[in-house]
Each structure stands twice: as C-alpha cells, then as structure tokens.
Amino acid sequence: MQDHLHDEPVTLAGRRSLLFGGDGDRIWGIGAVFVSALVALPVLAIGILALVPTENIWPHLMRTVLPGYIKQTLLLMIGVGALTFIVGTGTAWLITMYRFPCRKWLQWALLIPLAMPTYIIAYTYVDVFEYSGVVQGFLRDLFGWRNARDYWFPEIRSTGGAIFVMSFVLYPYVYLTSRASFLKQSVCHLEVSRTLGRSATGTFFSVALPLARPGIVVGVSLAMMECLNDIGAVEYFGVNTLTVGIYTTWLERSNLGGAAQIASIMLLFVFALIWLERVGRSGQRFHHMSQRERKPTRQRLTGWQAAAATVACIAPVVMGFVIPGVVLLQFAFNHFDEAANESYLRFVRNSILLSTLAAAAAIVIGLFLAYAHRLARSDFVQIAIRFASVGYAVPGAVLGIGILIPLTQFDNFVDGIARDLIGISTGLLLTGTIFSIAYAYVVRFLAISYGNMETGLGRVTPNLAAAARTLGRSSTGALRDVHLPLIRPAIATAGLLVFVDCMKELPATLILRPFNFDTLATHVYTYASLDLLEESSLAALTIVLAGLIPVILLNHTLKEPKRAGRVS
C-alpha cells in the first residue's frame, strides 16, 4: 500500500510530461496547446452552431439557394484550377528548359500578378470589357456597329469571365511550385526518355510532368483555395458562390445560424482540397540513381519557336498585371484630386493600424509556437501546434463567422453579469471592434509567420542552445540571447508577408469591421460595387504597390542551382 501511494504521483507527473514535455519546457507545451485551442475556436464554433443552430434553416437552404451556391463554387474552382494548371506549368517548363528572348526578365515578371488582388483585377476588367468599355467601344467604331444588337461579345460578368480573369492572377501559385519541381529534376530522367525515342513534348508529358506532380498539386490547391476565399471578384461578376452566400445571409438577412451552416459546407470544401493535395503527393518520392546529380542545360530556341515561347510567357503578365495596372494608373492620374483626400488617408491609417497589430501578434505567436515545437518532446504538443497553422486554408468569410460566434457569446455573457451586479449594460466589448478583425487576420495568416519562424530556427544548430543551457540559461533565456539574434531575417520576412496579406484581406474585414470603419480593401470594394472604381483607384493602386513587396521576396527564393553548361 505504501509503495502504491508512492508510485501514484510519479505516474501523474509522467503523464503530464508525456503530454507537455519535461518540467523545464512544460510551460511552452501548455502555452502551445492553449494557443492552438484559440486558433481552432472559430472552426469549432462554426461546427457547433451549424449542428445546433438557434433556427434550423437547413431544409430551406437545401431547397432553395444551397445547390446553386455549391454548383457555382465547383464550376469556378474547377475552371480556375484547370486554367492555372495550363498557364502555370506551361510557363514554368518554358522558363526552366529553354532559352529565348526576354527569358531573364520573364522568369521574375511571371510572379508579378500575385500583387494584384482578385477583386481589383475583376473591377478593372469589367470596366475594360463591358458594353461601355474601351474594347467594345473600339470595335463599334471600327466596324460601324451602333448597338449591342449588331454584334455578339462574350459577357464578362459571368462564371466564364470570372474563371478567365481570376486565373491570370492565381496562376503564379502553380508557376512557383511547378518551376521549383522542374529545377529539382535531374537531367538523367530526361536523357533516358530521349534516348528511348521520346520527343521533347513526349518527355514533358511522360516524365517531367509526373515527376513534378506533387509540386503542381500544391500550387493548384493553393489557387483553388484562394478562389474559394474570394468574395469581391465573384460578387462583382455575378457568380453566387458559397462565400457570397455567407456574406448575404449574415449581413443582408441577419441570420448568423444560416451563415454558419453555409460556412460549414465551405469547410468541407477546404478539407476536401487538403485531402486531394495529400493524395496527389502520396507515394511520390523519387531517388537519383547516379552519384552526381546534373541539371539540364537549357535549349536555345530560334525563329518562330522563340517568338512563340516569348509570347506565351508575356501574355500572362500582360493579362494579369499590365492591363489592370495601366487602367488603375490612368484612373488614379485622372482622379487624383478627388481620391487623395482626408478619407483616403483615413483608410490608409486604418489598414496600416490593423495590419501592424496583426503582424506583430502573428510574429509573437508564430515564434512562440515554433520554439515550443523545437522544445516539445511529445506528439500531443506537436500535433496541436501543427493544427494551429491550418488557418491559412480556411476562407476569410468562414473565419469571420467563426469569430463572430464566440465573441458575441462572450459579450453577451459579460453584459448579463454586469446587468445583474451593477445594473449597467456593457454592450459589445469585442464584437464589431478592430480586435475581432485583428484576431481573424492572425488566425488566417499565422501559418505564414509560423513557417518562417520554424525555418529560421531550423537553421540554428541545437548545439548553441545546449551550450547556453549548460551556462545556466533557461529556455526563455536561450531564446532571447541565442536564437532571436540569429533569426532576425526570418522575423522581418514573416512580419512583412503577414502585413501585406492583411492589407489585401477583404472577406473577413467586410464581416467583422466596426460601423463606419473602412480599410483600403473595403473602400475599393464599396466604391467598385457602386460603379465608382475611378474614385477608389488610388486606394486600389496602393494595395497593388504593397503587394509587390512579397513578390520581390519570392523572386529571391527562385535562385537556380549552379548547373553545368552555359546559361543565359
């Protein structure tokens, strides 16, 4: 009996150590699990309210709008996925394997459309291609047509128009991952294919493309997730996706339960994309059989082939950045006096304030989780930390609804206590404040911060931290004195990327923003919805210029390895 009483505390301590790590690092493990729970709270809240809503409108949704929302969402995602695959992999293969005019410039210029948010390019293209736009006006003058009955022109405000326009902004996701995969391929595989009688085109389809499949699947999945997250472009094109359904159900019909139920359907789409991405990459491990890996020497193209390759790579840049950029510059120049007013400066201040708060919080939380992951010796803590970084896959509209639910419950709980104790209503303390928007930003973009921190810490040898611990430093002291000075570039990169993404975020901001509070993104959305893009062009151009910053950083990640042979 005495032995049993003596062993029981040891067993409990062992269980705590198994869950959260050793005594010295337990606080990091407990904190990591707590932060992960906060990140998971919006998703859990959506699931609970969708299953047990205050007003069950599932039958009404299934009978009326939900089938249409699902159909339009699927059509848009499949179309964007297919077109981004064609453009992204095609340009990546040309840039990686061939030499042609302007190749050096095009290899980074193909990334530039990432700086153009989908909702901004949608507004500019509608202005260019609608009936009163430049293109149709030119055609009427050229051929003498008097009105729309004299000719046929494809409708830009349609599902096809949305697929076409959005694809030329989202294809860089596929271009990035495809090119990275092509750069890692050994020339040995390609040479064997050619010696067996395959043409260059046959080698691409039978060898290079299957070898690059894991990277391509990741890129296409990212493009489709961004497509699922969009609200400004699809609403402007008249495409009623699930995201539009969430927005209209909550803000126009004031039905939070119905919005949560539609959001739960969107989460199923997200989980399906994640599952497809995992399946697409499963079993795709290839090993080089030669002791020395050789990179292919790019083949020089001449004549019409060189011209065709150049045009094929220039066209996405022109469609995805140059045309909308020129439109915005023209509008901003013509309406600068109207746009550059006190309201514009207020929108800039609001955007910078929110983005700075969210970036600072994401840096602190990302660093905390990355360091806890480095210290943790339990699978429980590591799984919790990994789960905290899935917010990037959750659309902003879903996060907006998911954050509204617990914040509203908290505010009502505090208000009830205040009424009972002191007879005063506290009102909404967190709901409808910049805190709720910053919370959504952190949850959505925490993966960016965490990924950079984890990479930065991974480059610091554990021997340095071990030496600091032997000299009496605690875990916190080792982080402060050893790791932080060495990972400052990773911290700066993470903060910058999160800041820029927050500047562009629209769906969550629309749902959570306080009354009479606008950011640059919501200002552009509001004015473009009223067909007043010219008055908001300066704000749109500001967002685009901010978006160029991560594109420049991404360009540095595509440094090609040294290869044998002459390169351009």
Number of domains: 2
Distance separating the two termini: 80 Å
| Cα radius of gyration in angstroms | 26 Å
CATH superfamily of the largest domain: MetI-like
CATH topology of the largest domain: MetI-like fold
| Residue fraction in strands | under 5%
Architecture overview:
This protein is mainly α. Strands 1-2 form a two-stranded parallel sheet. Helix 1 packs across helix 2 and helix 19 crosses helix 20. The relative contact order is 0.13.
Brief overview, please?
By secondary structure, the chain is mostly helical. The chain has two domains: 23-52 and 339-560, MetI-like (MetI-like fold), CATH 1.10.3720; 83-240 and 295-334, Orthogonal Bundle (MetI-like fold).
Q: What labels would you give this structure?
A:
568 residues, mainly alpha, MetI-like fold, 2 domains, two-stranded parallel sheet, 2 strands
Structural topology:
Blueprint: H1 2-20, H2 26-51, H3 58-63, H4 66-97, E1 98-99, H5 103-109, H6 118-129, H7 134-143, H8 159-184, H9 187-195, H10 200-211, H11 213-229, H12 232-237, H13 242-252, H14 256-281, E2 299-300, H15 303-334, H16 336-339, H17 342-375, H18 379-388, H19 396-422, H20 434-458, H21 462-470, H22 475-486, H23 488-504, H24 507-512, H25 520-529, H26 533-557
Parallel strand pairs: 1-2
Helix pairs in contact: 1-2, 2-14, 2-17, 2-18, 2-19, 4-8, 4-11, 4-15, 6-8, 6-15, 8-11, 8-15, 9-10, 11-14, 13-14, 14-19, 15-26, 17-20, 17-23, 19-20, 20-23, 21-22, 23-26, 25-26
